[in-house]
């Protein structure tokens, strides 16, 4: 048989060849998967794929249908035109690079951004949490209808009616959101400048420490070569000096940032732009009180008395599983005695 004629050299060469074949096969599968993934990115009009044209850029508009950049430039030479799939009138300026693999996700994200610009109420604008939840549910219903082309006309009418009824609140919330974003930018700029200053200070300190160590090392060598004192004493003196300098070294506090990196000054002036934190009126401290049990009968025996007086003899002993769960025979006996003695004085 073939297995009888195999020796060590044949087996070794067979294993090497098999491993090489496996490597080529794995590489082929990886390339095939990559090519299939690139073939998925295709322009629906000219059928150009990412595999054929690696520089292919798919673009999407408000309707959610994709086109490559070349088709967009060709169809929208005048700045406007109709979508080749749904015939919706579109503008060339509204086309953008597709970020998500699914164009429907791209469409929903765009619709959500547009709707949330006007539906910008916060929880503080509602009297109850239920009204706020109904408001959020209405937003999701509108986004779902527009994303899936369901009742487009009535949905747009609802949006226009909402804009007319809540014009002042929409404008107020937009200004509030802009102010909050500006304050957040100021805080981020402060953190950025503080980190930059700290990095510069650490670099300067590191350079100074290196130079200082080099000078101390040279001074120590000169002292050892020229002095007639004991070398151990000289080294100990220099070690004490080094410890003292480390203790005295302190990091200079970073100056607080007052303007952006572009040169524009902050308008908050520190924390002056923020409203003071409201103080909450706290109620009285909680005082623990033990539970008062009303039996209307003689006091039942305690757990220790149940064991010492022999009540436990008439109760089935608990098993190991019951004991592991926290159950004991004393609990059952105590509960039975409480129920028997309760209400005897009524």
From TrEMBL:
Residues 43-87 form the RING-type domain. InterPro entries: MAT1/Tfb3, MAT1_CAK-anch, MAT1_centre, Znf_RING, Znf_RING/FYVE/PHD, Znf_RING_CS. It holds the Pfam family zf-C3HC4_5. Residues 152-222 form a coiled coil. The keyword Metal-binding applies. It is found in: Nucleus. GO terms for cellular component: transcription factor TFIIH holo complex. GO terms for molecular function: cyclin-dependent protein serine/threonine kinase activator activity; zinc ion binding. GO terms for biological process: nucleotide-excision repair; regulation of transcription by RNA polymerase II. Keywords: Coiled coil, Metal-binding, Nucleus, Zinc, Zinc-finger. It comes from the Eukaryota. This is CDK-activating kinase assembly factor MAT1. It comes from Lutzomyia longipalpis. The lineage of its organism: Eukaryota, Metazoa, Ecdysozoa, Arthropoda, Hexapoda.
């Amino acid at each position: 048989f073939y297995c009888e004629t195999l020796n060590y050299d044949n087996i070794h060469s067979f294993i090497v060849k098999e491993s090489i074949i496996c490597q080529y096969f794995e590489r082929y599968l990886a390339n095939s998967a990559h090519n299939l993934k690139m073939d998925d990115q295709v322009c629906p009009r000219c059928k150009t794929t990412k595999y054929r044209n690696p520089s292919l850029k798919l673009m999407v508009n408000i309707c959610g249908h994709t086109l490559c950049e070349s088709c967009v430039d060709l169809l929208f030479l005048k700045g406007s035109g109709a979508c080749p799939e749904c015939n919706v009138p579109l503008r060339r300026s509204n086309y953008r690079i597709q970020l998500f693999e699914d164009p429907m996700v791209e469409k929903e994200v765009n619709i959500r951004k547009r709707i949330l610009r006007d539906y910008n109420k916060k929880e503080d604008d509602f009297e109850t949490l239920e009204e706020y939840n109904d408001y959020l549910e209405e937003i999701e219903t509108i986004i779902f209808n527009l994303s899936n082309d369901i009742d487009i006309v009535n949905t747009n009418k609802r949006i226009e009616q909402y804009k007319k009824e809540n014009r002042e609140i929409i404008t107020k919330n937009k200004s509030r959101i802009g102010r909050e974003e500006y304050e957040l930018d100021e805080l981020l700029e402060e953190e950025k400048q503080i980190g930059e200053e700290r990095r510069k200070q650490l670099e300067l300190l590191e350079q100074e420490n290196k130079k200082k160590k080099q000078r101390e090392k040279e001074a120590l060598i000169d002292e050892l070569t020229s002095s007639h004192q004991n070398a151990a004493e000289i080294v100990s003196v220099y070690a004490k000096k080094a410890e003292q300098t480390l203790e005295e070294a302190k990091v200079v506090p970073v100056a607080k940032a007052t303007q952006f990196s572009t040169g524009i000054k902050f308008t908050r002036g520190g924390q002056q732009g923020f409203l003071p934190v409201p103080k909450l009126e706290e109620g009285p401290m909680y005082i623990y009180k033990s539970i008062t049990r009303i039996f209307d009968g003689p006091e039942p025996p305690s757990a220790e008395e149940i064991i010492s007086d022999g009540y436990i003899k008439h109760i089935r002993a608990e098993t190991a599983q019951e004991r592991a769960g926290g159950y004991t025979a004393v609990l059952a006996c105590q509960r039975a005695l409480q129920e028997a003695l309760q209400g005897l004085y009524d």
